[in-house]
Amino acid sequence: MGSRIVVLASGSGTLLQAILDSPVRASVVAVGSDVADCGALVRAQAAGLATFVVEPTTFANRSDWNNALLAELFGSSPDVIVSAGFMRILGPSVISEFRGQIINTHPALLPFFPGAHGVRDALAAGVVNTGCTLHYVDEGVDTGDIISQRVVPVLEGDDEASLHERIKIEERDLLVRALEQFVATGSFK
Questions:
Q1: Closest C-alpha to 45, from 54, 57, 34, 53
Q2: Which are the catalytic amino acids?
Q3: Is the pTM value of this prediction over 0.90?
Q4: What are the φ and ψ backbone dihedral angles of 60, each rounded to 5 degrees?
Q5: What are phi and psi of 90, to 5 degrees?
Q6: Count of CB atoms situated within 10 Å of the CB of 101
Q7: Nearest CA to 76 among 149, 146, 173, 7?
Q8: Which of 50, 115, 108, 109 is nearest to 76 (CA)?
Q9: Of the candidates 147, 30, 156, 15, which has an alpha carbon nearest to the alpha carbon of residue 87?
Q10: What is d(CA 152, CA 172) in angstroms, rounded to the nearest whole number?
């Protein structure tokens, strides 16, 4: 069927690399970031992909930043936008324009432990299981409809780093499998 995937990332790009190492790579048309100097862009450029940067600090306000991001996204004509470690909250204009096309991974079993510290919050709560979630992006923080989840047990002696590493392994696989399904069928179901 074929699909056009745009990946948004802010960090080292390990989720992006999982996509690039999979058959889904052929569908990735661009990688964007809010940070000019990040590992994800280096990985994308090494793979020969188009990249773009929309740094918030270069805009007068969030609205202008969202409009610039929208312009970049329109230029790539995505069927799906993957927030893969993208550490910015997308504005209402971006979400409304691409509603149902933006997905995000989160290192916890939503609706529990939303936000930037899902792993730390799960450990602090003393849960015996946590995991990762793939969900649609909506106007809230990690509140969109859930596409799929994976459970990861909390092991005795786990700290935030060790637990997060095990979650990341599942998160990468969860994302790649969902994207493979989307590319094959046009749906995450």
A1: 53
A2: 106
A3: yes
A4: -65, -30
A5: -75, 140
A6: 16
A7: 7
A8: 50
A9: 15
A10: 13
Token look-up 């056009």 returns 4
Domain residue extents for the chain: 5-185
> pLDDT tens track of the chain, all 189 residues?
569 999 999 999 999 999 999 999 999 999 999 999 999 999 999 999 999 999 999 999 999 999 999 999 999 999 999 999 998 999 999 999 999 999 999 999 999 999 999 999 999 999 999 999 999 999 999 999 999 999 999 999 999 999 999 999 999 999 999 999 999 999 998
Out of 2.60.40.640, 3.40.50.170, 3.40.50.300, 3.30.360.10, the CATH code matching 5-185 is: 3.40.50.170
Strands (E), the chain: 5-8, 28-33, 50-53, 80-83, 102-106, 129-136, 146-153
Residue 2, pLDDT score: 63
| Residue whose C-alpha is closest to residue 155's, from 115, 123, 186, 178 | 123
Grouping H, G, I as helix, E, B as strand and the rest as coil, residue 140 is: coil
